[in-house]
Design goal:
The protein has helices at residues 3-35, 106-131, 138-163; strands at residues 45-51, 53-58, 61-76, 81-85, 93-94, 99-103, 166-168, 173-178, 185-186, 191-208, 220-225, 233-240, 249-257, 268-273, 277-285, 290-291, 296-302, 305-310, 312-316, 320-325, 332-336, 347-349. The chain has 351 residues and is an alpha+beta fold. The protein has 4 domains: 1-36; 45-59 and 277-349, conserved putative lor/sdh protein from methanococcus maripaludis s2 fold (Beta Barrel); 62-70 and 196-273, Efflux pump adaptor protein, beta barrel domain (Elongation Factor Tu (Ef-tu), domain 3, Beta Barrel), CATH 2.40.30.170; 73-192, RNA polymerase II/Efflux pump adaptor protein, barrel-sandwich hybrid domain (OB fold (Dihydrolipoamide Acetyltransferase, E2P)). The strands form 5 sheets. A 6-stranded antiparallel β-barrel has the order 3-10-13-12-11-14. It has a 4-stranded antiparallel β-sheet with strand order 2-15-20-19, with no helix packed on it. α2 (106-131) runs antiparallel to α3 (138-163). The protein starts with a helix and ends with a strand.
């Protein structure tokens, strides 16, 4: 075959391959497009609506967070040994200093007795040397003093080791987990119990930067909980975050007394900041808001269609939020069924 013919064949093969690839890509694109949801703007979407209202507005602001223990520690052993006494159960309430576990300290106790005997012998020797009128050199006297000090140091060290064989609660709390039993061989650093103090709890909330000025260190605030509906607890601001998160919220931690232990770690609490009533404020329901805190938007109903509109918001409460600009009193905004809405979608109003 001539060289020119080979070139022609190669070109034809390449062209066929390119055409096949292009055909496949076009088909894939059609398949993907067919699978993607395409809203039908000609079909009316059922939505719930609310009227933009002008009137007195209670701008109490609330922030919900969860409770965490005031103190919680994992208690382990500082030494190795066998548990020979343990009379606590998971869920038990412990007092500060109460026994958690006693390890077998028999060997160390025997060493302590031996060290005590050596100390007594060294003290007696030193007393004899000091009372002797002659025959005792200064070197012997110095060695006797050294023996006394060495024996005393050994006793102190052994007593400290013996104390490590008795594991006690460092503060009042509840045993929330127990990982040992009678006869367990423990080692240094091994987790034995988790002790949790819920006599007071910490409530952490996230507050937007525009509202952070409402909180001061030492300030008290009302806290509402599901287990005490209609009855406020008092919390004290202990920590105000110095760095915002990605959403420009600041973490605030409040200390809440819990003397009757009715509140539990992990429960929800709501901090309520009571503000003055604002007269003639324009408001919409919170459920109508979409977009972000930096660019709030709503769907306004115009001629049977949903129109996306940028607005500017102000303070709010649990259910409604103040509108500074972008809406007029009496306009209708979509407050439910927003998931299927796009700008210009036809809508039908349902109750």
């Amino acid at each position: 075959m001539k060289k020119s013919n080979k070139i022609i064949v190669a070109v034809v093969i390449v062209a066929v391959l390119v055409a096949a690839i292009a055909f496949r890509l076009i088909n894939n694109k059609k398949e993907i497009k067919a699978k993607v949801y395409q809203p039908d703007v000609s079909t009316a979407v059922a939505v719930q609506v609310d009227t933009v209202k002008s009137g007195e507005f209670d701008s109490n602001i609330s922030y919900t967070g969860s409770f965490s223990p005031n103190r919680e520690v994992i208690i382990g052993s500082e030494t190795s040994g066998k548990v020979i006494a343990a009379d606590i159960k998971e869920g038990a309430s412990l007092k500060s200093g109460q026994l958690i576990a006693q390890l077998d300290a028999g060997l160390i106790s025997a060493q302590l007795q031996s060290a005590q005997a050596s100390y007594d012998r060294a003290v007696n020797t030193l007393n004899r040397y000091q009372q002797a009128l002659s025959g005792v050199t200064q070197l012997q006297l110095d060695n006797a003093k050294t023996d006394v000090l060495t024996s005393k140091a050994q006793i102190d060290q052994l007593k400290k080791q013996i104390r490590q064989f008795t594991i006690v609660a460092p503060f009042n709390g509840i045993v929330t987990s127990k990982d040992f039993d009678l006869g367990t061989i423990v080692s240094p650093g091994m987790k034995m119990v988790t002790l949790t103090d819920i006599s007071s709890l910490k409530l952490e909330i996230n507050v937007p930067e525009k509202n952070i000025s409402q909180f001061k260190l030492g300030q008290t605030a009302d806290i509402n909980t599901d287990i005490r509906p209609g009855s406020y607890l008092k919390g004290k601001v202990e920590v105000i975050g110095s760095k915002a998160d990605a959403s420009h919220n600041f973490a605030i931690k409040m200390l809440v007394p819990n003397s009757d232990l009715s509140l539990k770690s992990g429960m929800y609490g709501t901090v309520v900041i009571h503000n003055n009533v604002i007269s003639q404020a324009l408001t919409i329901p919170r459920s109508a808001l979409i977009g972000s805190s930096l660019k709030p938007q709503v769907y306004v109903l115009e001629n049977g269609m949903a129109k996306l509109r940028n607005i500017q918001t102000g303070d709010g409460n649990e259910t409604r939020i103040k509108v500074v600009s972008g809406l007029k009193s009496g306009e209708l905004v979509a407050a439910g069924g927003l998931v299927n809405l796009t700008n210009g979608t036809k809508v039908s109003i349902v109750k």
